[in-house]
Amino acid sequence: MRRRDLLKAGALTGGLLVGGRALTGTAQAAGQTTISLAGTDGHIILPGRAPLYVFGFVAVPATMSVNDLVATYKGKARHVSPVLDVKQGDDVYITLTNLGLVGRPDLVDSHTIHWHGFRTPTALFDGVPEVSVGVPIHRRFTYYYRPHDPGTYMYHCHFEDVEHVQMGMTGIVYVRPAQDGDPAPDPLHRTTSYAYNDGDGSTAYDRHFAILLNEIEEREHDADELIQEFIFTDYDPQYFTMNGRVYPQTVLPAGDPSLPYQPVSSLIQANPGDRVLLRLANLGYLQHAMQLPGIPLKVVGEDATLRKAPYVTNTLYMGPGEARDVLFTAPPFNPSAPVASDARGAYNTYLFKNRDFRRLTNRGAPGLGGMVTEVRVYQGSPLPAQTVVGETYA
């Protein structure tokens, strides 16, 4: 196929299905995944300050014209960006439209999609503007990929990338293995969902959650909005986020109306005995050490690569640009431990958190905040099977 025909085909096949609670932005046919995103700006809500100016991506209908997208979605960026779900070996088309910026109409920045860690055979679709394609304002471009390696990745804008990544143009993309959906190799396994092509069911899971770690340096965001310069050697973030939220926002359900532009929850809910897969990625500029006290963590994948020798740990060290695939088994419900309840019933709470206490606060305010969320293990088995990654239950 000629390059022109390939791009034309990608542009014509772009579709969208917003799955669950704005968690995914994919539409899938046999052997093909099509995704439509738009880049723009907006504001998010963080405790202790006025709405924060951000850049970001938003899932959009493929059938809309550029003018209609501008009228409908400009200034309504999401942080974090939609979680993208693709299948190993599929033809993946991601159409990006640049809507421009409401808060900074003086900026004429292009946007790109860089699939971080993806093994690409050509620079054309890599998203690094010096060697590939940047999308100017009010234009669109379709990127093409064929993922051969399952696992958890990240995607972000690579135009003025230090600024645009910090401003929020970041998201998780994961590749389901070819083995996914095959009959369970072990009759004790209740699931046919796998993180990797393991051959023995060792990466099988019942539930999975995608969590993007990051930091927010509010002075850089404020300077961007006020047309001022920020010196990145002064980088000293005040907020430490999981999926664009800080605790206690992290445990609000997906699509909570109080956070209209931060739709992705980090709440982890499980029935006793569930095998839970955490798809973790770090797109901040600092290393983070994550812990889940009381529950061992089994690392089965690193940077979209199956570990031949998985290891169990109580602390995950994740540097900038790194990803981990981690399994744990939800423990039995313990009525003697502290018990809380919600509409689904009674549950025990475990905290998945940064081990650095300085990153467990919101702008230095008293009380628990920052990079922490809850793992809730319920009495009995009241939770239905997940239909989308990160699904939460009211």
UniProtKB/TrEMBL annotation:
Gene3D superfamilies: Cupredoxins - blue copper proteins. Keywords: Copper, Metal-binding, Oxidoreductase. GO terms for molecular function: copper ion binding; oxidoreductase activity. Residues 80-179, 224-331 form the Plastocyanin-like domain. This is FtsP/CotA-like multicopper oxidase with cupredoxin domain. It comes from Sphaerisporangium krabiense.
